[in-house]
Design brief:
Elements lengths: L1 H4 L4 H14 L5 H5 L5 H18 L2 H13 L3 H15 L5 H18 L8 H11 L7 H12 L11 H22 L10 H4 L5 H4 L7 E5 L10 H4 L8 E6 L5 E3 L12 E5 L4 H6 L2 E3 L14 E8 L10 H4 L1 H5 L2 E7 L2 E3 L13 E7 H9 L3 E3 L13 H16 L5 H14 L5 H7 L2 H19 L2 H13 L4 H16 L7 H16 L4 H12 L10 H10 L3 H26 L2
Antiparallel strand pairs: 1-4, 1-5, 2-3, 2-4, 6-9, 6-10, 7-8, 7-9
Helix pairs in contact: 2-21, 4-9, 4-19, 4-20, 4-21, 5-6, 5-7, 6-7, 6-8, 6-10, 7-8, 7-26, 8-10, 8-26, 9-24, 9-25, 10-27, 18-19, 21-24, 22-24, 23-24, 23-25, 23-27, 24-25, 25-27
């Protein structure tokens, strides 16, 4: 109920569960904290490090550039390439990272083809979830495998999910390519790229920035003459952001710094607009604002859009709390939120996943922003990371790691952890970058919730629920009970994001129920794993869904319309394939 109500963060709920089970004596203190040293946590940590190496070496960016060339000038081919690429990447990358990698590619290609990103972003989000069904390297699959192991049953290997998840992924990706052009709107007027898609507007037009900027002349009698921008108090006292200073000589200072001096006859471009009375007290004279947009960009300065990434450190914070200007050395001109541009009181606006920011910055800060994990830069420049010379080194280590894991020469968690260490030792990423690549919220969520599985099993709670279910469905074929577990898991997955909490609760019960009806526990565990990856029906069901909602201009009905056929396909194929593979 806490997960569904969203009153507390999921990772905090997991810690509450952990300490409640220990304090009440349901499980021992050792069992309560054992989750953080468990195989699934080690596997998840290693998978994040591998994903981080793909990003840091530029391997992912190079792949993005290749995809742009492969898509050519055909919008339908673009949809096919992006959808199947997202599915392929999610086989060995975290699905959020796979979607975040392809999102700038999709936006850039859509703009080049004058087509709408609405047609491609949601298929990319869904494809990144579908592809993960075919491999162990998905959080839900790792968790289900660990629960089997904790109950003394054979765990799943790296490729154990392929016979079931592989056909589902292939047919699901094909269904996405077939249905997306029919079920998704051709354009969306709530998309921040709507006007640009049609080739009718610039970023400044799109965000309607003209109504939110002012232009003023510094009079020779102004008290600001001779003061630096920092000394003037324009920001601290009057909440004005000076975007550019046009000198009388014709020079334009874009993104002026606090040490830049104000001179007589300078023209200041600022936001938000200011009353003439206030300007008069400052010795400024209001000017007509024709041609102001040319002052925002130049040889070393540009405008870019950036989207708040899932699990970003910026989420839930205001620009003032972040100290965005000093932290990133860039100006926030507007924010696209809830289908419209926002300019008023930007400093106190709370940011959420999927919000798009219109930023003014020099090239180096833009490149640094694109290399971080908090914001996804939606521009061609974000694809042009300097070659590190380590792409092939990373590729060889990753392929070797996956080969050893697939052939079971070493345990999967040991192999992946070894691969992560080799990537660090080889210089593909350093320790600080490895720590940054790890989503510690996922680690805490899994480590904190694993004791719940222990408690359900050791106390007999799973056995009790299993007996109730077998008494209710015991006269039916085992596939009926499996179908029930699939539907319950899939329903919970639409409201409990993250892909780990739901199987931690449902899988122990499903395994116990399978044993009571004489079925293969691995079959029931497989059903729970597949159902957990069907987070398609709501924007909140998965962080990737929230990521594309703003840039794609989607409405909740779009998720349900495209996601329901995928969920039904997964349901039918899962039951059919599992009953054949686990007779």
């Amino acid at each position: 109920m806490l997960f569904i109500s969203n009153r507390l963060r999921p990772d905090l709920v997991a810690l509450v569960v952990l300490i409640a089970l220990a304090v009440t004596g349901v499980i021992s203190v050792q069992d309560a904290f054992s989750g953080f040293a468990s195989a699934p946590v080690i596997t998840i940590l290693a998978a994040f490090v591998i994903t981080g190496a793909i990003d840091q070496t530029g391997l992912g960016k190079r792949l993005g550039g290749m995809l742009l060339k492969l898509a050519g000038q055909n919008p339908h081919r673009l949809l096919v390439v992006l959808t199947f690429s997202a599915g392929l990447l999610s086989l060995f990358m975290n699905n959020i990272a796979a979607a975040a990698l392809l999102m700038p590619v999709a936006m850039s290609a859509a703009r080049q083809l004058h087509t709408s990103p609405t047609r491609v972003l949601l298929p990319v989000a869904f494809a990144s979830q579908i592809g993960g069904m075919a491999t162990l390297l998905t959080t839900s699959n790792i968790v289900v495998s660990s629960i089997l192991h904790s109950q003394g049953l054979p765990a799943f290997g790296l490729l154990s999910f392929l016979p079931v998840g592989g056909p589902i992924a292939l047919l699901g990706l094909g269904l996405l390519v077939l249905l997306a052009p029919r079920l998704l709107p051709a354009t969306s007027e709530t998309s921040p790229s709507f006007a640009i898609e049609q080739g009718r507007a610039s970023l400044t037009d799109l965000y309607d920035l003209g109504r939110e900027v002012g232009l003023a002349l510094v009079l020779p009698t102004s008290p600001l003459v001779g003061q630096t921008l920092g000394e003037s108090g324009l920001g601290e006292k009057h909440d004005l952001t000076v975007l550019a200073i046009a000198r009388n000589s014709g020079q334009v200072v874009r993104i002026p710094m606090p040490h830049d001096e104000l001179r007589a006859d300078d023209r200041l471009l600022f936001t938000p607009p200011c009353a003439e009375e206030v300007l008069s007290t400052l010795g400024l004279e209001k000017q007509p604002s024709e041609g102001w947009s040319e002052w925002l960009v130049g040889p070393r300065t540009r405008l870019v859009e950036a989207v708040v990434a899932p699990r970003s450190s910026l989420e839930g914070k205001s620009l003032r709390q972040i100290q965005f200007r000093s932290r990133y050395n860039m100006n926030v001109l507007a924010v696209w939120q809830n289908g419209r541009p926002v300019w008023d009181d930007l400093e106190n606006l709370t940011l959420h996943t999927g919000d798009a920011l219109l930023l003014q910055g020099r090239h180096e800060p833009v490149r640094m922003l694109a290399s971080g994990s908090d914001l996804i830069v939606l521009s061609e420049e974000s694809l042009q990371r300097e070659k590190s010379g380590k792409e092939w080194r990373a590729l060889v280590i990753i392929l070797m790691t996956l080969f050893i894991a697939a052939t079971n020469l070493l345990p999967v968690e040991e192999t992946l952890f070894l691969g992560g260490i080799l990537l660090i030792l080889s210089g593909c990423l350093n320790m600080d970058q490895a720590y940054t690549a790890i989503d510690w919220r996922s680690v805490v969520l899994v480590g904190g919730m694993l004791p719940m599985g222990v408690a359900l099993t050791h106390t007999g709670a799973a056995d009790l629920i299993g007996k109730f279910l077998t008494a209710t469905f015991g006269q039916s074929a085992p596939w009926v009970l499996m179908a029930g577990f699939f539907l319950v898991t899939a329903a919970l997955s639409q409201f409990i994001p993250g892909g780990s909490a739901t199987p931690l609760i449902i899988a122990p019960i499903a395994i116990t129920a399978a044993q009571q009806v004489g079925a293969d526990p691995r079959a029931f565990a497989m059903v729970v794993a597949m159902a957990t990856s069907t987070s398609f029906l709501t924007p909140v069901a998965h962080p990737v869904n929230a990521l594309v909602m703003g840039p794609g201009g989607y409405q909740p009905r779009d998720y349900f319309r495209l996601g329901l056929p995928l969920l039904l396909l997964t349901f039918v194929l899962t039951i059919l394939l599992v009953t054949v593979i686990y007779p």
